[in-house]
Amino acid sequence: MDHSFRSDAPLYPQIAAWLKRAIVDGAFPAGERLPSIRELALRLSVTPNTLQRALQLLESEGLIYTERTNGKFVTGDGARLAKLREELLRGQVRTLADDLRRCGYTKEEVIVCLAAEWEK
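User: That's the sequence. What structure does it adopt?
Assistant: Structure tokens below.
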């Protein structure tokens, strides 16, 4: 999964968002052990401390958990993962809708275009 982080915003929330997307995309399936902090930090070209802050954020949200000596794991809570999936979808749709409204598109134009693109 590709990543690129903005330099004008704090890094650890961007990493947390990338990890959430990776969980929803299935790159890190429910119940699976995450790569080590060092491995993920190298993969994302960030410091282990920055990655650790992102992981703490996900753990506080109940998306991952830690097993002492075994590492960090993606939650197996299907309801929590379904909620994450819906949150990500709503966020994407909200951003798209706001942008298209600013450009003057009508809801009908957007729905027709989206339906056509979906079928491709």
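The longest helix spans residues 78-102.
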